Amino acid sequence: MNRLMTEKETALMVGMSVHWLRRKRWEGGGIPFIKMSQRGAVRYEEETVRHYLDERFRTSTHDPGKR
């Protein structure tokens, strides 16, 4: 397993807020996460976050991205 990151570390890495991460977890479709306990401790694997970002790279507004 690779390094586990906190919400704050992950938010900084992706350039979004902790609130955005929490909303995406609730809505679905966000970065895959690990729930550490019933009390709500959440961590993100660094490799998974990098993969999430890589999948969103585009070369233009017309670029559909990876398929």
* Helix and strand composition category: alpha+beta
Question: Over all CA atoms, what is the radius of gyration?
Answer: 13 Å
Distance between the termini: 26 Å
- Give the averaged pLDDT, no decimals: 90
The SSE string, one letter per element, is: EHHEEH
Number of strands: 3
Query: What's the tally of helices?
Result: 3
Whole-number count of domains? 1
Main sheet: strand order = 1-3-2
Low-confidence stretches: none
Major sheet summary line: 3 strands, antiparallel
Q: Helix coverage percent of residues?
A: 40-55%
Shape: globular
Beta-strand percent range = 5-15%
Could you describe the 3D structure shown?
The protein has 67 residues and is α+β, with helices and mostly antiparallel strands. It has one domain (4-54). Helix content is 40%, strand content 12%. Strands 1-3-2 form a 3-stranded antiparallel beta sheet. The chain is globular, with a radius of gyration of 13 Å. The relative contact order is 0.19.
Based on the model shown, name its key terms:
67 residues; alpha+beta; 3 helices; 40% helix
